Amino acid sequence: QIGAGVSLPGVVAAKCGAEVILSDSEELPQCLRNCRRSCLMNDLPHVPVIGLSWGRVSPELLSLAPVDVILGSDVFFDPKDFEDILTTVYFLLEKNPRAQFWTTYQVRSADWSIEALLCKWKLKNIHVPLHSFSADKEHLAGSPLPGRHTIEMMIISLARSDGT
């Protein structure tokens, strides 16, 4: 999981039996401590937590084990980070061509989009309708999200040479 924050998606995946690696910014040690704390509180002391910097190839990024799914929960928050995030995702997908990047984001502005960056990095995007798994309700699991907010879910992967 990239941009793990408090690591809820990664912890849930690990509790369901997935092999998980949690990551957040190496420049935010508090986030990394929160990830480790979440793992300990959920009886997952074996889950590795690593610091990465989006857009930068580091020894930690180079040494990652093969992955099938990269989870990103609300990583598309600040438009200045979009390309760095997709650069890192592209690197991981090139290293793991059959992998997919599953991500969600809250649409905060009509002034920005990742579509052009997906084309630039030769990535394709499949939108997953929230209604397809009953997540389009006004209040979900006691949370006000999605509520009146627009939440997008997508699966991003490498585009084939023909662009599909």
Automatic annotation (TrEMBL):
The major lineage groups are: Eukaryota, Metazoa, Chordata, Craniata, Vertebrata
The record's annotation in Gene3D superfamilies points to:
Vaccinia Virus protein VP39
The name of this protein is Methyltransferase-like 23
Q: Which GO terms describe its biological process?
A: methylation
- Its source organism is Aptenodytes forsteri (Emperor penguin)
Q: Determine if Methyltransferase is one of this entry's keywords.
A: yes
Any single GO CC term annotated in Swiss-Prot or TrEMBL for this entry: nucleus
Q: Which InterPro entries did the record assign?
A: Methyltransf_16, SAM-dependent_MTases_sf
In Pfam terms, one family for this protein is Methyltransf_16
Keyword Transferase included in the entry's annotation: yes
Highest taxon, organism lineage:
Eukaryota
PANTHER family associated with the record: HEPATOCELLULAR CARCINOMA-ASSOCIATED ANTIGEN, HISTONE-ARGININE METHYLTRANSFERASE METTL23
Q: Name one molecular function that GO assigns to this entry.
A: methyltransferase activity
* Family classification: Belongs to the methyltransferase superfamily. METTL23 family.
Q: What keywords were assigned to this record?
A: Methyltransferase, S-adenosyl-L-methionine, Transferase
